[in-house]
């Protein structure tokens, strides 16, 4: 039914300007803004052209209880080091045993590390 229909994912934030700075300046994504006033929203453009809508919810925002975005990298150690150099902290979750860098390494899956955006939405970086 929707196999040939364009689609995009979305998630909310509590501060659109902080999200613009984080996704654009810290993560280096292409960020565009659409709308005006209370109807402002951001579009993140990922490698390959996929777009993600980021919309403001202000005080009504609740961080997603799941990972909203995953970045596949060839070298997770270099990616985590680069994130830390920009002030991003890796998250540690119960049930996972990360190394000193905050990377969870397990033979059952890819090496993965989690961090949050300024609105506390969870993002992952994982080694392909």
TrEMBL record:
Domain VOC: from-to ranges: 5-128
Superkingdom of this protein's organism: Bacteria
Pfam families named among the record's database cross-references: Glyoxalase
Keyword Glycosyltransferase: no
Entries under Gene3D superfamilies matching the protein: 2,3-Dihydroxybiphenyl 1,2-Dioxygenase, domain 1 (3.10.180.10)
Name this polypeptide is given: VOC family protein
Lineage: Bacteria, Bacillati, Actinomycetota, Actinomycetes, Kitasatosporales
UniProt keywords, alphabetically: Metal-binding
SUPFAM superfamilies, A to Z: Glyoxalase/Bleomycin resistance protein/Dihydroxybiphenyl dioxygenase
């Amino acid at each position: 039914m929707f196999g040939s229909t364009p689609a995009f994912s979305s998630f909310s934030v509590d501060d659109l300007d902080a999200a613009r700075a984080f996704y654009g300046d810290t993560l280096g994504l292409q960020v565009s803004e659409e709308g005006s006033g209370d109807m402002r929203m951001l579009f993140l453009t990922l490698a390959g052209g996929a777009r993600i809508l980021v919309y403001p919810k202000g005080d009504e925002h609740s961080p997603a209880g799941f990972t909203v975005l995953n970045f596949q990298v060839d070298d997770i150690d270099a990616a985590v080091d680069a994130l830390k150099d920009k002030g991003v902290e890796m998250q540690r979750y119960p049930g996972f045993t990360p190394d000193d860098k905050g990377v969870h390494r397990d033979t059952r899956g890819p090496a993965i590390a989690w961090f949050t955006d300024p609105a506390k939405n969870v993002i992952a970086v994982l080694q392909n």
